[in-house]
Amino acid sequence: MRQRIFLGVLAAIAVLLVVSLLFIYGKVTYSSKFLPKTTINGVDVSGMTAEEAEDSLTYTLPTITITFDGGEKDTFSLADVGGSYTYLDELNDLIDAQNPYTYLHPKAQDLTLEPVLSYDADLIEGVIDKLPAVTNENATDPTDAYIEKTDSGFEIVTETAGTKIDEQALLTLVSDSLAKWQYEIDGTSCYVQPSVKAEDLSLSDQMQTINNMNYIDVNMSGGKTERIDKATVMSFIIYDADSGDISVDNAAVTAYTQQLAQEYNTLGTVRTFTTTGGSVIQVGGSDKDTFGYQMDVETTAQRIASCCLTGQDTAAKWPVAGSTRGDDNDFGTTYVEVSIPDQHLWYYVNGALAMETDVVTGTGTNSTTPGVFMILDKQHPATLKGDGYSTDVEYWMPVTYSGTGLHDAQWRTEFGKEIYISGGSHGCVNMPLAAVEQLYNSIEMGTPVIIYD
Question: Which residue has the higher pLDDT, 431 or 307?
Answer without folding.
Answer: 431
